Amino acid sequence: MISCILLSAGESIRFGSPKALAKIHHSTALEFIQQQVLQSNIAELIVVTGAHENLIKPVVFNHSNVRIVYNKDYKLGQTSSFQAGVMVASPKSEGFMLLPVDCPLIKSATFNKLIDKKKKNKPAI
């Protein structure tokens, strides 16, 4: 089982608004990413929120494979968000894909190729 931790806790100061809510392909970046992950072989998606939780939370899909966690320490950076995601991940998870919300154009086929490579090569990291 592979889990994906989607980092969307940042303040987006330079961007000017939450990157998760940026419009892409007639939806938000967050919605597009969720669709791609749910069409892939990733078993669970953990959306980590922080600075803009009140704006991002309503866009998180109500789906059995999607979880949301609030990182109260989001100002400490991406590592703290990754740690928050790992803490709520399924104990059955054999690995994690770490995905920043500002990389929204990854397709489900790409996720599947990465998972297949991991299964085939069994890397230690």
Topology summary:
Elements: E1 2-8, E2 23-24, E3 27-28, H1 29-38, E4 44-49, H2 53-56, E5 66-70, H3 78-88, E6 95-100, H4 108-121
Parallel strand pairs: 1-4, 1-6, 4-5
Antiparallel strand pairs: 2-3
Descriptive notes:
The structure is a single chain. The chain contains four helices and six strands, in the order E-E-E-H-E-H-E-H-E-H. By secondary structure, the protein is an alpha/beta fold. The chain starts with a strand and ends with a helix. The relative contact order is 0.26.
Defining traits:
single chain, about 120 residues, alpha/beta, four-stranded parallel β-sheet, two-stranded antiparallel sheet, 4 helices, 6 strands, about 30% helix
- Report the principal-axis shape: globular
Question: How much helical structure, as a percent, in the residues?
Answer: 25-40%
| CA radius of gyration | 14 Å
Whole-Å distance between the termini? 15 Å
The number of helical runs is 4
From the structure provided, what is the oligomeric state, counting identical versus distinct chains? single chain
Q: Output the structural class.
A: alpha/beta
Q: Residue ranges: pLDDT <50 for 5 or more in a row?
A: none
State the major sheet: 4 strands, parallel
Query: SSE order, as H and E?
Result: EEEHEHEHEH
Approximate strand percentage? 15-25%
Task: Going across the biggest sheet, name each strand in turn.
Answer: 5-4-1-6
Mean pLDDT over the full residue set: 94
Report the count of strand segments.
Answer: 6
